[in-house]
Specification:
The complex is a heterodimer of chains A (217) and B (219). Chain A has 217 residues and is mostly helical. In chain A, 70% of the residues lie in helices and 0% in strands. In chain A, helix 3 (59-79) packs antiparallel against helix 4 (84-100) and helix 6 (149-167) runs antiparallel to helix 9 (198-216). Chain A starts with 12 loop residues before the first helix and ends with a helix. Chain B is α+β, with helices and mostly antiparallel strands and 219 residues long. Chain B is 31% helix and 21% strand. Chain B has helices at residues 11-19, 24-36, 38-56, 67-76, 98-104, 208-217, and strands at 114-115, 121-125, 132-138, 147-149, 153-159, 161-163, 168-170, 174-177, 186-187, 193-199, 203-205. A six-stranded antiparallel β-sheet of chain B has the order 1-2-3-10-5-8, with helices on one face. Chain B is elongated and about 65 Å long. The chains are: A mainly alpha (217), B alpha+beta (219).
Chain lengths: 217, 219
């Protein structure tokens, strides 16, 4: 059905195939070295796919990311108040942005789910709130060409543990966090909401902090 | 800068910035502080990771049948490709991080200051109406009239320092004030204090003269 997996559809892909293979091999090695939970290897697979999109404009890898994240981005946007049509349009926009900005993806600084979330959030602000949002200035140094593999690995594991910590929260607390990220709570509501388990997720976040600080510089 | 900052963003502000629900004026102050503070940059990354997990954890909905095809067509048509902005990093001697420079349309010398009395100058920056943000220049040694807050007020120091009843705030420090805080900030001797201050409700001055002045200057 799709012509997109046909290499002739993207002329530049031929020259980049070797690079894609290399990107996948790197993460393949990482996977072999670290026999961990399935969940972490799922995250490493996303890193491999995203890296292949970034380095080789790999449309197969992109289609795999699309199949997993597309329905979730759309659902997230609908929960944030978008109609199904607007959510579809906005999701397509997010996926195009993922492709176009893939050179900004740095797996030592953000996991794939985190990175896609920030893109979806910014699109939501554009489309739904029609507001301007400034981003912090860039760090004076750029992404490293080849991030240390142990950093990439550690960040995926931290993110995995953070996800678990959230999933295991009592329903009421988890729902509050979800509401905050769907945009249903204003800042003052977050500040006033004593049921928000900031303490609980903070202990997890604290652990992630040193790792992130290391990655940031 | 990092390492000397003592007063950081609160968790609720970082979470709201990460969720994308802050008023534009607050976004600017948060983004400017994070530009100066690696600690808060790292904490924001953690809150973004929470958002990523919330998004990845939702139950899925169906995409339009031709969704992927439509996306690939847009990509191949070059949709949404913008020329990469040059790296957003300020000059080493500038006290205005890039997010602020975007709103000022330049550096410190581009600010159009207006006197508001007591030697204090301000420049209101243009944002959506749900909150306001301004640059304040308080001459060294000068006090800002005693005032309270109806909502939340964020004050980020860009140059110099001020002291109030709670503590000393130097460059990079951010004071998050709410309704409970009545304070009289005083700029330290030595250097004019330049701050970026946002508020989601008008300040409440405790004195008849500042209150009359307030009507004219729009603080």
């Amino acid at each position: 059905m799709l012509t997109t997996t046909d290499p002739s559809a993207t002329p530049e892909i031929a020259g980049l195939a070797a690079k894609a293979a290399r990107a996948r091999k790197i993460v393949g090695v990482m996977k072999a070295e670290s026999v961990t939970a399935n969940e972490t290897s799922k995250r490493l697979a996303w890193v491999a796919q995203m890296t292949a999109v970034r380095d080789a404009k790999d449309t197969d890898a992109f289609a795999e990311l699309f199949a997993y994240f597309g329905p979730r981005v759309k659902s997230f946007l609908m929960k944030s108040g978008a109609s199904p049509d607007l959510a579809e349009e906005c999701t397509q926009d997010v996926m195009v942005t993922i492709w176009n900005k893939s050179h900004m993806f740095d797996p030592a600084k953000a996991s794939v789910s985190t990175w896609i979330f920030t893109i979806a959030r910014n699109r939501r602000i554009d489309h739904l709130r029609k507001q301007r949002r400034v981003e912090p200035e860039d760090l004076p140094w750029g992404p490293e060409a080849e991030a240390p593999q142990e950093d990439i690995m550690a960040l995926q594991q931290e993110t995995e543990l953070l996800g678990k910590a959230i999933a295991e929260l009592p329903d009421k607390q988890r729902v509050l966090i979800e509401k905050a990220y769907y945009g249903e709570l204003s800042h003052s509501e977050i500040a006033a909401e004593t049921g928000l388990p900031l303490g609980t997720i903070k202990s997890r976040i604290r652990l992630a902090l040193d790792r992130l600080r290391h990655a940031i510089g | 800068m990092t390492g000397t900052i003592k007063h950081h963003l609160t968790d609720d502000l970082l979470m709201a910035y990460s969720a994308g629900t802050l008023p534009e004026a607050f976004n600017l102050v948060v983004a400017t502080h994070i530009s100066m503070c690696d600690e808060c940059r790292a904490r924001l990354a953690s809150f973004d990771a929470v958002g990523g997990e919330v998004m990845a954890g939702v139950e899925t909905v169906e995409l339009a049948e031709n969704s992927l095809t439509a996306v690939m067509e847009k990509i191949q048509a070059g949709a949404g490709i913008s020329i990469d902005k040059p790296k957003s990093v300020r000059a080493p001697d500038s006290i205005f991080p890039m997010p602020l420079q975007e709103y000022v349309s330049g550096d410190l010398d581009a600010v159009k200051w207006r006197m508001v009395g007591g030697g204090v100058s301000q420049a209101i920056l243009n944002t959506s109406k749900d909150a306001t943000v301004r640059l304040l220049k308080i001459p060294a040694g000068t006090a800002v009239p005693d005032h309270g807050h109806r909502g939340t007020e964020l004050t980020l120091v860009l140059q110099g320092a001020f002291k109030d009843e709670t503590d000393r705030f130097g460059a990079g420090d951010i004071e998050v004030a709410n309704e409970d805080l009545h304070h009289t900030p005083v700029a330290e001797q030595g250097e004019d204090c330049i701050c970026l201050a946002a508020s989601d409700a008008p300040l409440r001055f405790n004195g008849i003269l500042p209150r009359i002045a307030q009507r004219f200057v729009g603080i």
